[in-house]
Amino acid sequence: MATQQYPTWLSPWYRLGPVLLPAHRILSRLRSRPPSPGFRVLLFHDIPAERLTRFERLVRYLRDNHGLLTPDECRQWLAGEGNRPTAGREPCLLTFDDGFGSQARAAREVLGPLGISAVFFVCPSLVELDGEAQRQGTAANIFDGRRAAADLPRHARLMS
Questions:
Q1: Which residue of 99, 108, 126, 149 pairs with 122 in a disulfide if CB–CB is 3.0 to 4.6 A?
Q2: What are residue 25's phi and psi, to 5 degrees?
Q3: Looking at residue 1, what is its pLDDT?
Q4: Residue 77: C-alpha distances to residues 35, 42, 71, 121 (Å)
């Protein structure tokens, strides 16, 4: 299994992460100011079929505990229009990057039945390609050449 390579200037922060993250959580709880009236944007990439159940559990948790924004609600909020969420809740906007076919399946099988909208960012010039040309384009442009086209998993096809 290949290991993730990080720039050398980041490595001290990754080593300090197990200490800094719990300290940050404790200090955040001690703050007396109310949480900011913001929202979170969650970005997903490929969702393989074997992880679809986990994804559904996550989406249900977010919906029930934080609330989910539609793209239109997010636009209105950013424009200073519409209703803000209740205090203590930071709703989420779900977004998907690169247009993998597995995202279409997640939308069809999870988001659709739950009535949840999301934003999908696709690569128009890549989704129009077929077969090997699409695999080559995906490897070169989405994976920035870090993976060869032959090494891409079968489920890494782009949606049409």
A1: 99
A2: -65, -45
A3: 47
A4: 17, 17, 10, 20
pLDDT digits (tens, 9 = 90+) for 40-84: 899 998 888 899 999 999 999 999 988 899 999 888 888 888 766
Structure tokens that stand for 94 in this block: 């779900």
Q: Do 118 and 111 meet the contact criterion of CB atoms below 8 Å apart? A: yes
CB 120 within 8 A of CB 99: yes
With a CB cutoff of 8 Å and minimum separation 6, the contacts of 97 are 43, 44, 45, 121
pLDDT band at 33 (very low <50, low <70, confident <90, very high): low
Q: Which segments of 6-106 does DSSP mark as H helices, in order? A: 11-30, 52-65, 71-78, 101-106
Determine the Cα–Cα distance for residues 108 and 119; give it in Å rounded to an integer: 14
Q: pTM to 2 decimals?
A: 0.71
Q: Both tokens of residue 111?
A: 């988001």
Residues in the chain: 160
